[in-house]
Design a protein that fits this description.
Chains A, B: One of its GO terms (biological process) is D-xylose metabolic process. Chains A, B: InterPro entries: ATPase_NBD, ROK, WH-like_DNA-bd_sf, WH_DNA-bd_sf. Chains A, B: Pfam families: HTH_24, ROK. Chains A, B: GO terms for molecular function: kinase activity. The structure is a homodimer of 385-residue chains. The first copy, chain A, has 385 residues and is of the alpha/beta class. The first copy, chain A, has 3 domains: 74 residues, Orthogonal Bundle (Arc Repressor Mutant, subunit A); 133 residues, ATPase, nucleotide binding domain (Nucleotidyltransferase, domain 5, 2-Layer Sandwich), CATH 3.30.420; 157 residues, Nucleotidyltransferase, domain 5 (2-Layer Sandwich). Chain A contains 12 helices and 16 strands. In chain A, the strands form 4 sheets. A 5-stranded mixed beta sheet of chain A has the order 6-5-4-7-11. In chain A, strand 2 and strand 3 form a beta hairpin. In chain A, helix 1 packs across helix 3 and helix 9 packs across helix 11. The longest helix of chain A has 25 residues. The two termini of chain A are 19 Å apart.
Chain lengths: 385, 385
C-alpha cells in the first residue's frame, strides 16, 4: 500500500514537471522548483530521466537583466507523437499529431456508409502503417491512437454504443484497432475531442466553460468545464440535436418527431429540397439560395434561425463563457458565422444572457477532431504511464 | 506563507473529521483514523475541540462481535442551526434548519409582488427575530441565513441580478439582510439550492449527476455534478424555461417568442384559459379539465406534453443519472408525476437515453428550497470558518 502510494507520487511529480515544461517553454529548473515546491534534487532526477528518454531539449540563454547564462528546458515536439483519426459517414481522416497539437502529416480517405465495421478497421490499420512509413515516423515515438466519431461512445471501454452516421451498434472499436495496430487506442465522441482541441490549442484557450456546437450531418454540442470534458452519465451529454423543438414537426432519423436537427442537418435540408428539385449536394442548395430561388432562401434562412436558436438553448442550459461554431456547414459556408452571430445578438438569445459569452469561430476547423483525438491519446498515455 | 498553509491544513482536517462524524454517526475514533490517515493524536485534539464547542455527543456502545465497549461519536443535531428562506412571488417561507437538514420550525408569510425591496427585507428581518424567539432558539447556535429565490443571482456577492418574479434588478440582498439581522447571508437561485437539498437529504442521495426540474410560476432546472452545483459562468445555467421551442410561438414575459415555459408555467396557462373564461387559480383550470371541458383538457394535456419534452431536453443536454420533478404544479397535482413519466418512457424521450436515468419524485416537496437554503448557509459557514 505504502509502496504503491510512493510510486503514484513519483509518477504524478514526473507528470507535473513534464506538463510545466510543455506549457511554459523555455523554462529554468529554478522556476519549476518555485512553481511546484519540489526540491532541486527531485527536479534534477526527473529532468535527467526525461532527457535520457529523449523528451527534453536544453538551451543556454542569457537572461536580459543580469547578463548571466542559464540553462533553459523545452520539449522536443516530435518526442511524443500520437495518431489522430476522425471517422465520418463519408470520410476517414488520419494524421500524426505532435505534442503541440500540430498535425505533422495527414491523409483523407473515403468511407462508404455500408462498409462492414471489420473491413473499415482493417483499412484503417493499413492506412496508419502506410502513413508512418511514408512520413518516416519512428513508431517507438507514437504513444497511441485516438479516434473521434459521431454517436454515443463509451470512452472507458472504447466501445461505440450507437452511431447512426457510421451505422454501428455496440462495436468494440478500441479492442479491434489495438489488435490490428499494436497501439493503445482511445475512442470518444467527435465533438467532445473537438472541443478539447479548441480549448487546448484553438480559439478557446483560457476559457473555463467552453461550449462547442457542430452543424453538419448531425447537430451536436459539447462542454468543457475547467479543462475537463463534461461527459454526463453515459458520455452522452450535449445531444442537443435530439432535443425536441416541435412535437408536430418533421420525423427525425431517430424515430422521434421535431428534433432540432431536422431543421438544420445536411441530410434533412437535402431531403426537403428534393420536394422541389433533385439537389445532390449542400453546395447546390446554397447556390440556389444565392440565385434567389424562393424555396432555397426559405430553407437556408430557416436553418440559420434554428442555428441561432441552438446557440440560445446552449447559452440558457450551460451558461458558458464561450460558444464555438463548428462543423461542415460552417466550414463550407463561412458567412453562416456572421449571420448567426447577428441573429443571436439582436433577437434570438435570451436578453439577460445576450452579452454573457464570447461568440467564436473554430480555429482548427476540419482538423479539429483529428487533432483532438491525437491529444486525447497523449493525455491518456501520460495519465496511465 | 508557511504559517497560512498550516492553518489551512488544520482547518481542512477539522472539517474532514466533522463531516465524517456528521455523515456516518455513530463512529469510533479508530474508524475516523482509518478513513483519513490522521494520527490518533490529531483526531483526539480535533474531537476534543469539537466537544468543548458543544458539537459532539459521545456514547458508549458494546460492539456485537467482541463484546468490548467502545466510545462512539455523533453530532448534536441542534448544535449547528441555520435559517433557510424561500422567496416567491406570493409567499415568504422562513425556517430553522438543523445539521440533518430538518426544519425545526418554519412559518409562511404572504408577499405582494409590488412590495418595495427594502420593505420586504425589513419584514424578513422581523420574521427571523420573532421565529427565533418563539422557537426558543439560541441565536449563538445559528451560523447564518440562506436565501433561495427565482432568477439570476450572483451567489458570490449576494446580489440578485434579475428576478422577474420578485420584480427585482440588481438588489444587494445579502448585504442588506446582514445589516438588518447580524447574520452572515448566502443567496442563491431557488432551483440550485433545491437540487442540493434533494441530493444531500432527499430523493437523490448517492446520485453523481442529478438534474432537477421545477414547474411552477416559471420553468427552470439545475444540475448537481459530483455533489457540486453546476453554476455556469454567471450562476445562470439551467434556464431551460427560456430555451426557444417555437420561434412563431406565444410571447414570453422575457420579450422573446416561443420560450418553453410559455406552454407550461402557471401564469401562461391562466392567461390562455382567460380567452375562454375567467379562471383565477390553477386549481380551477385542473377542475375544468377533470370535468371534461375541452379547452381545459387541451391546455393541460399540452402542458403535460411540454413537461415531458422538458425532461427529454434535459436528458439530451445533461445526460444525468437522475431526474427529479418538482415545483408548485407537481406539488399540487401529484398525478402529473405519473403522467409525465408515462409519456417519457413510451415516446417523448430520445430512444438511446430512454432507460438511462432514474425518474424521481421530489422528497422534500415545498420545503426543498427552505431546507436547501439552510444547508447552503451551513456549508458556507464550515468552508469559511
Amino acid at each position: 500500500m505504502k509502496k504503491h502510494d510512493q510510486d503514484f507520487m513519483k509518477r504524478q511529480n514526473r507528470l507535473t514537471v513534464f506538463e510545466i515544461i510543455k506549457n511554459q517553454p523555455p523554462i529554468s529548473r529554478a522556476s519549476i522548483a518555485k512553481q511546484t515546491g519540489m526540491s532541486a534534487t527531485t527536479i534534477s532526477r526527473i529532468v535527467g530521466e526525461l532527457t535520457e528518454q529523449g523528451y527534453i531539449l536544453e538551451s543556454e540563454q542569457v537572461s536580459a537583466g543580469l547578463g548571466r547564462k542559464s540553462t533553459l528546458l523545452g520539449l522536443i515536439d516530435a518526442s511524443v507523437l500520437s495518431i489522430g483519426i476522425e471517422l465520418d459517414r463519408h470520410k476517414i481522416s488520419v494524421g500524426v499529431v505532435d505534442l503541440q497539437g500540430k498535425a505533422v502529416c495527414s491523409e483523407v480517405h473515403g468511407h462508404f456508409p455500408d462498409e462492414r465495421f471489420e473491413t473499415t478497421m482493417m483499412r484503417i490499420g493499413k492506412i496508419v502503417g502506410d502513413l508512418l512509413r511514408k512520413g518516416g515516423i519512428d513508431p517507438a515515438r507514437v504513444v497511441g491512437i485516438g479516434v473521434g466519431l459521431p454517436g454515443i461512445v463509451n470512452n472507458e471501454t472504447g466501445i461505440v454504443v450507437f452511431s447512426v452516421q457510421m451505422g454501428w451498434k455496440n462495436v468494440r472499436l478500441a479492442e479491434l484497432l489495438k489488435d490490428l495496430t499494436g497501439f493503445e487506442v482511445a475512442v470518444d465522441n467527435e465533438l467532445k475531442v473537438k472541443a478539447l482541441a479548441e480549448h487546448l490549442k484553438g480559439s478557446a484557450i483560457g476559457s473555463n466553460r467552453t461550449a462547442l456546437i457542430g452543424f453538419g450531418n448531425g447537430v451536436g454540442s459539447s462542454l468543457i468545464i475547467d479543462g475537463e470534458i463534461y461527459r454526463g452519465d453515459m458520455n452522452s451529454a450535449g445531444e442537443i440535436g435530439h432535443t425536441t423543438i416541435d412535437p408536430n414537426g418533421m420525423l427525425c432519423e431517430c424515430g422521434k418527431a421535431g428534433c432540432l436537427q431536422t431543421y438544420v442537418n445536411i441530410s434533412s435540408l437535402l431531403l426537403e429540397a428534393s420536394k422541389i428539385r433533385q439537389v445532390h449536394t449542400i453546395e447546390e442548395l446554397f447556390e440556389a439560395k444565392k440565385a434567389g430561388e424562393r424555396w432555397a432562401v426559405h430553407l437556408v434562412d430557416r436553418a440559420l434561425m434554428y442555428m441561432s436558436i441552438t446557440v440560445n438553448n446552449i447559452v440558457c442550459m450551460y451558461n458558458p463563457d464561450s460558444v464555438i461554431l463548428s462543423g461542415e456547414l460552417v466550414d463550407k459556408f463561412p458567412d453562416i458565422y456572421e449571420e448567426v452571430k447577428e441573429l443571436c445578438s439582436t433577437t434570438l438569445v435570451w436578453e439577460p444572457l445576450r452579452e454573457s459569452y464570447r461568440f467564436l469561430r473554430s480555429e482548427l476547423n476540419e482538423q479539429g477532431v483529428l487533432i483532438g483525438s491525437g491529444l486525447l491519446a497523449q493525455t491518456r498515455f501520460f495519465t496511465l504511464e
